[in-house]
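Private note to self, pasted from the team thread so I don't lose it. Backbone tokens:
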């Protein structure tokens, strides 16, 4: 643990606190894990990174895997997914949609490829069928008052309401790729695949938002 940033900080509901392993590559491929107290089918994993784009923080946004097990020491485990390659942007949350239908009690974020550092602001585990959540996400950005982002009843159009001096909307996938832009408040999202997206709404102020498209 680096500078007293204990494991509980990753599940305290506060994205301003963090868990970090020992600094300086003392332990390559570190891990953080959580006991769910009983086995459950997992629907989605969410990893909220540390709000810093320095080299060390950047390294913690790639080269990790998500393990699941029913033994605390992970002597037997399944790999639910992993992140390799270019680190994802520091301002988005990383999500993993879990397809494994097995019930697990323990979840581990495991460093890979000799990763020297993991930093976690928050880690969240969602039970299966508890994944269609629409929430604002990004702190440290100007907050839009009376702002609402919602899908219509058909799930085909996304509406921006209550935003002063609306300018445009950019929609990104969870890898940070721009997939759709619009200069209107009503955006046709029928062509987007089911999944998690970030919506960067610009007006007098701006606030990236998260939405999950569910068929």
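Design output:
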């Amino acid at each position: 643990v680096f500078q007293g940033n204990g494991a509980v900080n990753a599940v305290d509901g506060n994205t301003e606190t963090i868990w970090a392993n020992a600094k300086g590559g003392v332990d390559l491929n570190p891990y953080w894990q959580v006991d769910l107290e009983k086995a459950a089918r997992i629907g989605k994993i969410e990893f909220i990174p540390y709000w810093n784009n320095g080299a060390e923080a950047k390294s913690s946004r790639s080269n990790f895997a998500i393990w699941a097990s029913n033994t605390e020491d992970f002597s037997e485990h399944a790999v639910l997914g992993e992140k390799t390659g270019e680190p994802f942007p520091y301002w988005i949350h990383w999500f993993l949609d879990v397809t494994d239908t097995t019930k697990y009690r323990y979840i581990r974020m495991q460093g890979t490829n000799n990763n020297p550092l993991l930093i976690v602001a928050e880690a969240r585990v969602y039970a299966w069928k508890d994944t269609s959540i629409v929430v604002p996400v990004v702190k440290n950005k100007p907050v839009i008052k009376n702002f609402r982002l919602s899908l219509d009843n058909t799930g085909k159009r996304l509406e921006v309401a209550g935003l002063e001096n609306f300018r445009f909307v950019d929609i990104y996938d969870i890898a940070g790729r721009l997939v759709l832009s619009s200069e209107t408040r009503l955006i046709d999202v029928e062509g987007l695949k089911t999944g998690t997206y970030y919506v960067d709404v610009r007006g007098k102020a701006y606030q990236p938002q998260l939405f999950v498209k569910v068929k």
